[in-house]
Design brief:
233 residues; alpha/beta; Rossmann fold; Arc Repressor Mutant, subunit A; five-stranded parallel beta sheet; four-stranded antiparallel beta sheet; 9 helices; 39% helix
Length: 233
């Protein structure tokens, strides 16, 4: 099946260039030219991934991202001309999975799309796996590898694809310290070490969902200056 990409970009010339090049790569493309329409199409068109600009008329990309995250786990890559560090971090904090600054190469964009869509089945596919056995269960945390779900004390956590991948990667070797560079390469799917804050923000978001007190984590622990490890006993 082809991957459906929703491009939310108010500059039609840029949107057309992205759509043309991605269609050549075999992607199915749908477009929106303002924030409100982008939000509507994100929920009605069931895209596999969203390319979301920040500076949009009607509703900016940050707000669109926040609203989408209340309803959907679809991967979101923010595309923007802004280079400020605070904008990038804020985009990740409101739920974006990745971030690219214009101008960017189409080759890199295609690689980022594949990296953000290739691993985890979509929510509709997961419904077919109900009734599967639970994976490892310790300290009230359960990982169901068949259903792609993580539970805590019997309650299914509302994780994004990336958050699920992070906890599964860490859980492969409980107690083993994993560097931020390794997480970026293995979970994000590419070697991109210019900005490892993406890893820190994703870990922070995951802790908010899995820890009783995110300020004093007991499951996902920071090894200062090195990386992270998970406690499963």
């Amino acid at each position: 099946m082809s991957c459906k990409v929703l491009v939310v970009e108010d500059e039609k010339a840029i949107s057309d260039i992205i759509a043309f090049n991605l269609k050549r790569e075999g992607f199915e493309i749908i477009c929106a030219y303002d924030g409100k329409k982008g939000h509507e199409m994100a929920l009605s068109e069931d895209p596999d991934i969203i390319l979301l600009d920040i500076m949009l008329p009607g509703m900016d990309g940050f707000e669109v991202c926040k609203r989408i995250r209340k309803k959907s786990e679809v991967p979101i890559i923010m595309l923007t001309a802004r280079e400020e560090e605070t904008d990038k971090i804020f985009g990740l904090e409101v739920g974006a999975d990745d971030y690219m600054t214009k101008p960017f190469s189409m080759r890199e964009l295609v690689a980022r799309i594949h990296a953000n869509t290739r691993r985890m089945p979509r929510t509709t596919d997961r419904e077919e796996t109900k009734g599967a056995d639970l994976g490892e269960t310790k300290q009230g945390i359960s990982i169901n590898h068949e259903k792609y779900e993580v539970s805590k004390d019997g309650r299914i956590l509302d994780l994004t694809n990336r958050e699920y991948e992070i906890i599964c990667f860490l859980a492969k070797e409980p107690g083993a310290i994993v560097s931020r560079e390794s997480l970026m390469e293995k979970v994000w799917g590419y070697e991109y070490y210019d900005d490892l804050r993406s890893v820190d923000v994703a870990i922070c978001r995951l802790r908010e969902k899995i820890e009783d007190n995110p300020a004093e984590p007991k499951h996902i622990i920071t090894k200062r200056g090195i990386g992270y490890y998970i406690v499963m006993q």
